[in-house]
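User: Run a structure prediction on this.
Assistant: Running it now.
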Amino acid sequence: PIGVGCSANVFLVEKEKINYVMKIYKPGSEKDALQEEESLRQFSHENIVKFIDSFRFGDGYGEVVNVLVME
């Protein structure tokens, strides 16, 4: 991870030679993820990361994890 917080871990990922940031929220942080996604969708500014996508997946332990992808 390039960052670790109380509600999420942040990773740098690459797809087709483009770097993205993937923020993987810890189980139980769904409210935080949804609030951040809503905020990022509303803003377009050179000093704010660009929202790309969001999705959810099972972590293999019965929990659902929220993920935000940003540029």
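The longest helix spans residues 30-42.
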